[in-house]
Write the structure tokens for this entry.
Amino acid sequence: MLVYSEKFSTVFMFVQVRLQHKPLHTMATTDFWTSRRSVAPLISIVLLVAIAVVIGSVVSVLALDIGADVDEPAPQAAMETEQTNGTVTFTHHNGEPIDPANLKAVGGDIDNASLPSDEIQAGDSIAVEPDDDAEEVAIAWKEGGQSATLARTPVTSGSGSSTSGGVLVEETAADTYIPVTEYGTESKEQYDALEAANLSDPFTLSVKAPELAGETSNKYAVTAYYGDFGAAPNDRLAGPSTPLAFDENGVATVTIGSAGTNADETTWIAPGSVSNDASLINNIELPAETERVAIETTDD
């Protein structure tokens, strides 16, 4: 009986001990899920931080791009205008300085010789020679995608670049402006202008190129197209013996005429009209520095 009791007590104690301790696989499973629950919040935080960083980077890049696309506003400047001897002058009265590289004339051409080398400030002037039949001349500012008109003024009678206006036509016998064609090229625009004109024989050719002031140039030529523009046959007088001699203002004058005339440069290409409806010389090439050119015409 004692032996049985001791065995029973031993078994009871073993069972009790087993019941008090969890099985090995139960403990491992519990630790696994506990570990998963602990890691989940950490992963969420890391993901949120990463998302915030990405969003912040995108916003910064967009902000920089938008900031780069925002151009400087147009300068605020008051200008006074005056018209004398066929030239419209815009004078900077007060306000912000202006970069001359950002300026353009509307209805005429800016005389670059009148511009300062750096900024246009109060007291500086901008000389503009109006286009043919221009009713208004304006100074426009443009930089990047921004543009604005700084000043405008109507062109008074006689100020345009027609027979009675302009520096060239007042200082020389030339009376009509034509489009400029660079030496070595041809221009349909100039061709049409010369076709509509009636050159005198001889005729005066006046060229304005301030960059060539005090210099001479033989880079000019005249061409006669006997058919349509650019078509053969045609004749071209190049390499003339009389150069363009530019004065201190960058203006050169030469007369061109047919053989037997007292022209500075003679050619067998008669400058006069063909059947009284078109000039035979219908392309005049000039130095690349040329800003304006005028010719002498006749009503005959």
The chain is about 25% helix and 30% strand.
